[in-house]
């Protein structure tokens, strides 16, 4: 995981946006391996951490923590996307709490509904033949999902049809979970519709009777933020989720939290008994209004402006600050 993710972040190394001060650009760093860049950047620096990098396969924990410490010292604003990552940065990277502003993941503003819907939307054509009720899962159908739980859950919900929307091309290294995924894909009440363009995903999410977020508790997933949650929040449909991602434990009652397949089956049955109307459609719609990427960017900009002004004079008066930005960056092989 380290290689592909670090390459992606390398391209974002030069991503910058005007912060309103003439001639100054803010640098957004998303991995710790660009600490040398952050230390020499002449303007404000944002450390936007979206994963527990030290848990990546092949990552050296001691190196990552040392670089996280440097990033936290150099950054003007530190934006982990979860409370758990914020605690990591304070406890392991000695990041001052005053620099930290938690900015969770989000959804596009185009996914928001103008008003709360009355029931699920019409099914997309490729799953229109499925009979309701329909439990749906959207996203990368890979190893961060609890396939063993899903295998049992589908068996327990014989009267429910399942729609899986997303790719299954990523291999699952654990044999038991890999076999569980293969078995689920062959079940008669399950439809794997494959990957879809991002712009079409909202149509599926709105059409489900209930959305299921079956995260497997493992790192780095557990410490992150669930984009799936914010996509389904905007769709306003009921959600049943595992506690495999700590952030979701803070989202009750907007979703129903479960630990086992038995609990999940009961939650779905209870929702079915009330017509999949849990009385929280409006609440989810209202909450989703503040859960867009545009809202996150605006908050980041506001926080940065407030923090940067008092520091600008001190940083620019340092004659060595801003030099040698092209220095070699510490990146894992």
Task: Indicate the CATH architecture of the largest domain.
Answer: 3-Layer(aba) Sandwich
- What string gives the helices and strands in order? HEEHEHEHEHEHEHEHEEHHH
CATH superfamily descriptor of the largest domain: Glycogen Phosphorylase B
CATH class of the largest domain: Alpha Beta
Task: Describe the protein in words.
With 333 residues, the protein is of the alpha/beta class. The protein has two domains: 2-104 and 293-316, Glycogen Phosphorylase B (Rossmann fold); 109-288, Rossmann fold. The protein has eleven helices and ten strands. It has helices spanning 2-12, 35-40, 61-74, 83-92, 147-156, 175-185, 198-207, 227-235, 261-273, 281-288, 293-316; strands spanning 16-18, 25-29, 45-47, 77-78, 134-138, 161-165, 190-194, 210-213, 239-242, 256-258. It has a six-stranded parallel sheet, with helices on both faces. It has a four-stranded mixed sheet with strand order 1-2-3-4. The radius of gyration is 22 Å and the shape is globular. It starts with a helix and ends in a 17-residue tail after the last helix.
Topology, element by element:
Layout: H1 2-12, E1 16-18, E2 25-29, H2 35-40, E3 45-47, H3 61-74, E4 77-78, H4 83-92, E5 134-138, H5 147-156, E6 161-165, H6 175-185, E7 190-194, H7 198-207, E8 210-213, H8 227-235, E9 239-242, E10 256-258, H9 261-273, H10 281-288, H11 293-316
Parallel strand pairs: 2-3, 3-4, 5-6, 5-8, 6-7, 8-9, 9-10
Antiparallel strand pairs: 1-2
């Amino acid at each position: 995981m380290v290689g592909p993710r670090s390459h992606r972040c390398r391209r974002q190394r030069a991503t910058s946006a005007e912060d309103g001060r003439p001639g100054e650009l803010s640098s957004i760093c998303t991995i710790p391996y660009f600490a040398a860049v952050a230390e020499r950047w002449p303007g404000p620096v944002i450390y936007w951490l979206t994963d527990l990098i030290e848990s990546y396969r092949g990552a050296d924990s001691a190196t990552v923590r040392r670089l996280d410490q440097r990033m936290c010292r150099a950054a003007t604003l530190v934006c982990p996307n979860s409370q758990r990552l914020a605690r990591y940065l304070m406890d392991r990277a000695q990041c001052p709490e005053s620099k930290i502003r938690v900015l969770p993941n989000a959804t596009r503003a185009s996914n928001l509904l103008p008003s709360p819907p009355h029931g699920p939307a019409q099914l997309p054509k490729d799953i229109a033949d499925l009979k309701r009720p329909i439990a749906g899962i959207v996203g990368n159908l890979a190893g961060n999902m609890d396939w063993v739980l899903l295998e049992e859950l589908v068996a327990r919900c014989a009267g429910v049809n399942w729609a899986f929307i997303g790719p299954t091309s990523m291999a699952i290294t654990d044999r038991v979970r890999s076999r569980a995924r293969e078995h689920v894909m062959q079940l008669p009440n399950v439809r794997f519709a494959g990957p879809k363009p991002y712009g079409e995903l909202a149509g599926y999410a709105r059409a489900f009777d209930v959305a299921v977020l079956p995260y497997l508790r493992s790192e780095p997933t557990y410490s992150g933020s669930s984009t799936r949650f914010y996509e389904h929040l905007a769709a306003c449909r009921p959600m049943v989720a595992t506690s495999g991602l700590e952030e979701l434990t803070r989202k009750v009652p907007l979703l129903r939290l479960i630990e086992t397949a038995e609990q999940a089956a009961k939650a779905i049955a209870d929702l079915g008994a009330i017509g999949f109307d849990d009385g929280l459609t409006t609440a989810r719609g209202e909450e989703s209004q503040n859960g867009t990427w545009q809202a996150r960017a605006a908050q980041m900009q506001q926080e940065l402006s407030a923090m940067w002004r008092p520091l600008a004079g001190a940083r620019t008066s340092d004659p060595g600050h801003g030099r040698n930005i092209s220095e070699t960056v510490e990146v894992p092989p």
